[in-house]
């Protein structure tokens, strides 16, 4: 009798182990897809493009860079081809160029970060009007989207991501002036919480931030270097519009320039109020004048190290502006 019971117990346990093991095995590809630490798994020999392991491989060793080219007058040049440029990644030519194209139809995800501290009080209303006009002219319904964040001592999102310009306009007008300036904290928060690459999967978008500020940060807990690094990791381009109307090059102006230079953006220093609208118009024009190149770097290691990017036009009278580099994923 005891032997019979023991046999029945053994059979029941065996079936239970099989039942538990099957779903665990079926889920294993999805576990791999959520962890970038598994690229060494052998790729599938099939042609199914949804294979999560292949997706990881693409993310790890394919680099996408947005850039613009201008002539010696500063005008955008929109009719160039791959052969008109040289590319260096970590001071070496790429292993392979995967794609090169003029990128005007890629969706835009935009963060409008407006300094609401007491130091920008005199131009605050005009800046709001210029920002609303920019959003009206730039965003395409059901395609692009933006959010509005005001920052002083603390940052506050007054409108979440949307393609509805009226909602964004309300968000801009709900910004309230006063307090200190924590610009680096706002950039860090925007890149981490709103524009992180991990939130997009394999859907290519252009990510950009427009910072409207005098650049005189006096409240941030995050350093300028960390704000820049966070933007670079998120592949966010920073455009900066200075609210300083002193006519002098102040410390804040230099900070705005560094933010833009490190991420492939551009800093504007409008002296007159009407020039603020011209700055927004120039950003709108640039967003419609970009190229994108996708390539596989040579001697690539997923070691988390910073790798420099250099894109140069072969024609001497052309200038190229792109982000300075990126951080390789860490495994």
Give an overview of the whole structure:
The chain is 34% helix and 24% strand. It is of the alpha/beta class. The strands form three sheets. It has a six-stranded mixed beta sheet with strand order 6-5-4-7-8-9, sandwiched between helices. A four-stranded antiparallel beta sheet has the order 3-10-1-12. Strands 2-11-13 form a three-stranded antiparallel beta sheet. The longest helix is centred in the N-terminal third of the chain and has 32 residues. 31% of the residues are buried.
Mean pLDDT score: 81
Number of strands: 13
Number of domains: 3
Helix/strand order, N-terminal first: HHEEEEHEEHHEHEHEHEEEE
* Oligomeric state, counting identical vs distinct chains: single chain
Which regions contain 5 or more consecutive residues with pLDDT less than 50?
A: 13-58
The CATH superfamily of the largest domain bears the name von Willebrand factor, type A domain
Helix fraction bin: 25-40%
Class from secondary-structure proportions? alpha/beta
The backbone outline, from C-alpha atoms, is globular
* CA-atom Rg in angstroms: 24 Å
Strand order of the largest sheet: 6-5-4-7-8-9
Number of helices: 8
The percentage of residues in β strands lies in: 15-25%
Biggest sheet statistics: 6 strands, mixed
Query: What is the level 1 CATH name of the largest domain?
Result: Alpha Beta
**Second-tier CATH architecture of the largest domain:** 3-Layer(aba) Sandwich
CATH topology of the largest domain: Rossmann fold
Distance between the termini: 56 Å
